[in-house]
Structure formats: C-alpha cells, structure tokens
Amino acid sequence: MALNIFEQFDKNVSLVSKIMESADTGVEDIEPYLVEILQIIKDNPDQKKQFINKFINFLKMGSAVPLEIFWYCMHDLKWSEVYEAVEHYKNSSSDLRLKRAAELILDAFSDDWEDAMMFERYRS
Fold first, then answer.
1. CB 54, CB 60: distance < 8 Å
2. Cβ distance 73 to 55 under 8 Å?
3. What pLDDT is attached to residue 98?
4. How many angstroms separate the CA atoms of 108 and 64, rounded?
5. How far is 25 from 98, CA to CA, in rounded Å?
6. Cα 80 from Cα 93, distance rounded (Å)
7. Distance CA 4, CA 106 (A)
C-alpha cells in the first residue's frame, strides 16, 4: 500500500532524525531525505497549511527534530508563518539553548545565509 504524502513526509523526518543520532553523520548522509521532504511539500501546495502546522509542531518538540530539516526547507520555502512562529518561540523561551536554536533557524530564511553551502542544493 502506498504511503500518503504526510506518511511519506513523517517517514523521511524520522529517517533524518535517526541518521543524525549517529556520531559519524554528516549533512551528505541526510540530504537525500531532505530533498525528498522538500519535494513532497512543493508537490503538494494545496497542503501548505498542514505542512506549516507540522513545522510549528516540530518547534514544540524541541531537539527531537533536527535543525537541518528546518534549515533546508525554510531556506527555500521562506514561509512567513513558520518564521513568525520561530521568532515568537525565541522571544518567549527562557532556555538559552532553545533561543540559540531558534536564531539558527531564523538565519536560514536569509537569501545570504552563510551555512547554506553545507548543502549540495545550495552550493550552485
């Protein structure tokens, strides 16, 4: 039975999370799954609201979802709803680690984001 788009999305998010748990992991190990996550989103623009909600829910999960998923997708998508949610999260949190994580996510929205070069997609 074929997975629906949200099951595919969640499966790839889980795979990225699992791969990132390994100490020997680099971005090149997760980028194929990030490509697939972003493609699922782009192929289903009618589901934008649901994907926005997924990213906002990821914020609430904290470190359970790798930042690389936010970075990769939001550098391309630049969804203002997610930006505003991350900004609110940053401003309302008293945890310095969470504030720093939010700052790193917000940086990825910039067209001249310095860390974009870690991803093959954004090198060219």
1. no
2. yes
3. 86
4. 19
5. 22
6. 20
7. 30
Region of 59 on the Ramachandran plot (φ > 0 left; ψ -120 to 50 alpha; else beta): alpha
Which stretches of 21-66 are DSSP H helices? 27-43, 48-61
Which residue's entry shows tokens 């906002």? 56
Contact by Cβ (8 Å): 40, 8: yes
User: Quick one: tokens of 97?
Assistant: 């680690």
Question: Quick one: pLDDT at residue 2?
Answer: 56
Q: What is the pLDDT of residue 63?
A: 67
Please identify which residue in the block is written with the tokens 């954004």.
Answer: 122
The structural domains of the chain, with segments of one domain joined by +, span 5-122
The verdict on pTM exceeding 0.90 is yes
Q: Which residue stretches of the chain have pLDDT < 70?
A: 1-3, 63
